[in-house]
Predict the 3D structure of the following.
Amino acid sequence: MEITMVQLIALGFAIFRMTHLMVFDKITEFMRAPFFDELKEEENGVEEIYLIPKTGGVKGFLGQLLSCYWCTGIWVSMFLYGGYLWLPLIFGPFITLLAVAGVAAIIEAAVQYWNRDAG
């Protein structure tokens, strides 16, 4: 199956957004929590919390995966592209939604960056 440049760009933005959602966003923190241990350290009166992937087994594997943006991105790519190939009526709208959200996230990050420099 051939893929057009527009489809490739949309997939790229969708993969970016879904990967970021899984690895970084607060709204999915509950999904990541079972795969990490918290390490609390106090430095100069400030408590820092570090998330350490669990070791061994499936939880360890998934913890390592979710701590790596690049690794998670590969699996998200396979999921979204595979879904698009085999179930385009379901994945097409889902990918479009994620792509639009990805573009919006990039625009918001740019606006915040420019406002930081202007202020």
